[in-house]
Prior knowledge:
Blueprint (H helix, E strand, L loop, with lengths): L20 E7 L11 E6 L18 H14 L3 E5 L17 E7 L2 E11 L2 E6 L4 E7 L5 E6 L6 E6 L4 E5 L36 E3 L13 E6 L11 E6 L5 E6 L4 E5 L10 E3 L4 E3 L7 E6 L4 E6 L2 E4 L17 E4 L2 E7 L2 H4 L14 H4 L5 E8 L16 E7 L2 E8 L5 E6 L21 H9 L12 E4 L6 E7 L4 E6 L4 E6 L3
Parallel strand pairs: 12-16
Antiparallel strand pairs: 1-30, 2-3, 4-5, 5-6, 6-7, 7-11, 8-9, 9-10, 10-12, 13-14, 14-15, 15-17, 18-19, 19-22, 20-21, 22-23, 24-25, 25-26, 26-27, 28-29, 29-30
Keywords: Repeat, Transcription, Transcription regulation, WD repeat
Pfam family, one: WD40
Family: Belongs to the WD repeat ESC family.
Amino acid sequence: MDQDSHPWFYNRAPTDDSLPFRAWKKFTPCPNEDRTPLIQSIVLFPWLESSLVELWDGDFNTPENTEDWKQMIIDFGDAVAAGDDEGNPENAKTVPSDNVLNMTWALQPEHIFEPLLVITRFSIVHVFNVKHKVIQTRLRGHGGQITSISTHATKPNIFCTTSRDMSSRIYDLSLPPQDKITNNPPWPGDKKPCLAGPAHGLQMNEKEGVFMKRVGGKKRQGAGRCITVLCGQRSGGHEAAVLNSAFHPYLNVIATCGLDRTVKIWHLPPPLKKTDLHREDKPLFSSSMIHEARVLSVAWLSADVLITHSGPAVFRDRELDDDDQYQEEPESNLHVEAGTIEIWRWLSLDRFFPASDHTQRVLRGVASDYQESLSFQKVASYSYPDSVPRDMSSLYITPRVQVCTAGDYHPLICCLVPSSPSAQLVSIKNVQPIAPRPHPGHPDPGESWDDFQERLGRRSRIVPPPLPSWDLELPEGQNMSACILALDGEVIIAGGSGGSLWVLRADQE
């Protein structure tokens, strides 16, 4: 892109549906496969030639590393990892897992020129060395299925996994797996470490990792150790499955969200010892008043602005009588409201992280911070497009939202309902702040004061407006199963219903 030109979305109105994307490449499954795979997740190689300046605070930005780093970008800069439920795409390396659910890219400080692909399946984490095409380590620690995985923004050896066991685990690829229980607290009356396990946010009774084959013909120590557990069901932890997480752009902070309708922001202090497992159950922020249903994803738009999206919410039209409260809820008394996308600001950032050189290792808020905090302000609220059904069947539909930073321009948002014919692209520039709520007014003519008070006490049904989006469709009329934005929004990679992987590029206007 020329310096004087702008990206395609810079001055494009939301009503302009003529997107400049065209199909550039298409990858199809092997013709010998009897069944068509369904692509579930897509991750693009995230680093550029200039990324070495920012990673690990520039510690590896030396003249002797620059040339090797450039060569790695040439080799893997356009790499795309796509996980499907069955089948083997062309020229693909098969890992021993049936359904690949979550993936992320990572790096080891000791081998920064060998990119790693961290893959999760059920409760197991597979660390795949892309350069040598071998699984380097398998890690275990969660007591339930892993729901998401994310990598630290500036320290790519750190990644976080969320799980249905109501906890999140932070791993460090620069450390070897723990082979024995070292610092589990003892039960009262005993002096030995307890064997409680993952359900209590502790270490497993067995080895944490399983070392695999030789890497590059040499025997190498396994990579990955759990250094922090964000416990659930404690003072301020999640009370249900944790569904997503996002690291802060530059602070030691991570945001999580889950099935309990809450969004939490945690501080991640550095461990005092490499053998210590830090357990945290009191976040800096926790609130269930942002969404009315399960929160599916969370992402940072800036230092204190986040975007979250939730699934559909079920509401009762009227309260049940005393005689009916023990009977099955009639479906006619329920209605479904669409899930929402909320953009909101965390108001306590300056309180915990003031603009000074002094930093604290341990940060603690009060009970109103980690139980039900009001330290947030909604900026914008939107509902899903009309293509999502407004009935009980929509409860099993989980829309996906991805945020793409576009250099010095405003971010882009991609919203996709799996197996739908189109994805919605939204520019933050077109997002409008929340309009003031209407005044309750006065009693209607002929309405008694008691009826007026009862009407005011009912739930206000203010449905957020639909997204001011552009619709993106795949060629050949295929439905989308997964979609991501890449390269500052100029490239779109999408998985089609036929098991194909499409690469769309924006033409210069």
